[in-house]
Design a protein that fits this description.
By secondary structure, the protein is mainly α. Helix content is about 65%, strand content about 0%. The protein has helices spanning about 5-35, 40-65, 80-115, 125-130, 130-150, 165-170. The two termini are about 30 Å apart.
Length: about 190
């Protein structure tokens, strides 16, 4: 598809957030050692805000691509019914964590509404909103992964997939390389 999908847009926003964090930290480091650059105090807070958002959005993307956990003890040759049960139980645990994060995130956002950063003057609600947004994304992605696991138990569900494969499974279009054809990465051989 010539148009970027929502998951691609989310990945690009994570890439941009990482680039912004690197630039801000580089500016902060250069400001310490180069006399012609003023030492900016706001860079630490902006870098921390970028890191917070990257962690939480990255966690949500990890739920969508099933990169958080894999069950290697169960052979891939189990029946479709067993795969569906495993997928449902695993994703139910993810949903419980996402709901807990959402509930905690609500009170966290309320705390951030009345606070501002000491050096940059930004409202802390911008940082404190990250867990709330990520929990909603995690719930949406959990439902999406569960649904694909019910439709295609041997390909979807808790099997780790690349972003393109996740999108193809979600819209039910064939990919150049299915998750079962992918190299050893699908078997959880990550280092």
């Amino acid at each position: 598809s010539p148009y970027p999908t929502p998951l691609h847009r989310l990945n690009r926003s994570v890439d941009r957030g990482l680039a912004a964090m690197v630039l801000v930290v580089a500016f902060q480091i250069l400001g310490r050692y180069l006399p012609f650059l003023s030492r900016a105090l706001w860079t630490e807070e902006i870098a921390r805000m970028c890191l917070i958002w990257l962690v939480f959005i990255g966690a949500a993307v990890g739920v969508r691509t099933s990169e958080h956990f894999l069950i290697d003890l169960i052979p891939s040759s189990v029946s479709d019914r067993a795969q569906r049960i495993i997928t449902t139980l695993g994703l139910a645990l993810v949903a419980v964590v996402a709901v807990a994060l959402f509930i905690g995130g609500l009170s966290f956002v309320q705390t951030g509404l009345g606070r501002t950063s000491t050096t940059s003057g930004l409202s802390l609600v911008y940082s404190f909103t990250a867990p709330l947004v990520a929990s909603v994304l995690m719930l949406v992605f959990t439902i999406d992964v569960w649904w694909e696991g019910m439709r295609k138990p041997q390909e979807g569900g808790l099997r780790m997939v690349e972003v393109e494969q996740a999108e193809a499974l979600a819209v039910d279009t064939p990919t150049a390389q299915s998750p079962t054809d992918a190299p050893e990465r699908n078997r959880g051989d990550r280092r």
